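User: Could you walk me through two proteins back to back? I'd like the raw sequence and the structure tokens for each, with a short line separating them so I can tell where one ends and the next begins.

Assistant: Of course. Protein one, sequence then structure:
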Amino acid sequence: MRRVQRISFAAVLAGALGAPARVPAPIPREVLPMTPAIARLPIEGDFPSLAGATAWLNSPPLTPEGLRGKVVLIDIWTHTCINWLRTLPYVRAWAAKYEAQGLVVIGVHSPEFPFEKDLENIRRSARAMRVGYPIAVDSDMAVWRAFNNEYWPALYLVDAKGKIRYHQFGEGEYERTEEVIRQLLAEAGARGAANGSGLTPVDARGSEVAADWRDLKSAENYVGYERTENFASPGGAARGGRRVYAAPAALKLNQWALVGDWTVEGGSVALNEAPGRIAYRFHARDLHLVMGPPARGAAVRFRVLIDGKPPGAAHGVDVDADGNGTAGDPRLYQLIRQAGPIADHEFEIQFLDPGVEAFAFTFG
């Protein structure tokens, strides 16, 4: 069965530290001859149809035929993926810098969680994240399948003749990707495209800032029973059933626990009665939680503690120094961002209203 997953923590970490990421690479069907202007780039396939998109944002529907003569960067994403969020500043910078030379950037939004299929959630997220280039809304995963894709995030570069010439799975390789963009633009006849060098400066904010890879000892962890790891509440999870949970006397690194009246589903946990808590022992600069209220227009108040105290200067962009925040939309929330030496800490989020649904912890 074909895998559908984000780039693994191990693969991303390996790439960030200079080791090859263990991801499949398409087999080139033919290779272009060497020329002085461009490096040797394989042809990995034809630009597949975009007709499976259920909607388009920022643009009328686009087609491979209508884009012939342009260099196209396809960015497959979903708005809660921390790995994609950290690539976004580069894609945004390339879209702005190379548009006049013939680059077209298309974001293909292929959802992971059910709420990511909601068009208004996608529209709101795109606006908040300053995604101004065309977005193919791929809520049925049809464009994903057309590219035979397996990962969030994934970049594919298509040349002016409609051939896929390059791909990048996961974070990293930004300078190489931009070099290929310039090469393909030069090949298409764009003036001055081959004269540039180096990486375009980016404007990364909040969760977009690159991870602190060398001090990251906590991996992404889904909280639903189908994919979670290291759940430590005594008695384990009552799968699909309502239950009152408690925390153990102590959590080991990367263990987590529920406290209060929760229902643990396959892909998420939901709080039945307030108050309720989630505790997590982690080692990372940043901690994020994908979560949301029970219905559109609702809001859930919460408070964050680190080692039993308000986070102060270590608060993330979605909480204040006292740890107070509100979950008003289903999305990724940055709850902790630390400065200085990183150590093991115990994180706790206290929900003051019922109904919140939590999906995954991510770290950076």
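----
Protein two, same layout:
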Amino acid sequence: MIDRFIRSRVELDWAGHQAREARFVFSLPFKPILLLAVIAFFSVGTLAQTQPKPARLLFTGDILLSRHVISELERRKVSPWARFTDLFQSAQWVSGNLEGALGQASECQKPAPLCFAISENAPALLKNAGFTGVTLENNHAADLGSVGRNRTRSLLDEAQLTSVDFENSPHTLQIGGTRLALLSISLIPATDKRVQEIPSTQVAEKLRLARERADLVVVSIHWGTEYQKLPEAIQRTQAHWLIQQGADLIVGHHPHVVEPPECVDGHPVFFSLGNHLFDQTYPPTKEGLIADCRLSGGRLTCQAIRTYTEDWTTIPRPAGVDPATRAALAACVLPIRKRIKRDADKD
């Protein structure tokens, strides 16, 4: 009887000891672990909120909405971008270089040998296709004079399409968590003789403002020689200068043919994207590139999508990722330099 009583007391004491030990073990080691887990959870949440959202930027080459292009569109009653819908919808920014000015052919300035008068329905066509903006600084921007320049910007703005020329450069906008600055430059004189120069104090000042106001600076530039399939030495010199002044990404046009992209000083440079939508018939003018750039993890990377226009039409079609551009820009990974936020940015 006494033995059983002693054994039961021993067993109860041992069970109590184990319970106290379990409470002790749980109370000490697990509290720091639990605390660390809570801190990690909220840290990850905060980090996710502060990291810029990934974004896709698309830039096409020259766009003509005049002459034989508009004749075909009116005859066939189609959008030239019907086959680009999914691609454009996947991007947060889609732009191209619009050749010409909105208005009537009767307004063409003399003695211009070529005049691209664009229908005032063009902004709706671009908007419905998925474009978010266009650049306007090129040798056909003043085909309808200063009135045409002003009207073009006004009608594009009414259609809620960003329009960028040299006067309103740098134009800043928010893409996800990244502040983007766009500059539109033309080194080819327009009908009104307006032209920019590189190097120049004017362009340097625009780039300085862009660098102050944005995290990423994109330069759209009309340059080079028509139908020249390789960039010229002067273009490389100009690209170096633009990058030294603050440009992060350069997208070029005017030659109407593709000039191979290169990684210049660690920055992607598309010397010429060629024609995107045009009515020229010389075989190389039927090919184009769309610069396809991604903002992700605080970095900019670019590749290109090929386009091709059949001989019997002016309407392009996508032709897949360009392997040559992918190889040329594979190592061209550019960290996005975050600007210092000012009080004026907080509204």
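The mean pLDDT is 87.

Let me know if you want the two compared in more detail.
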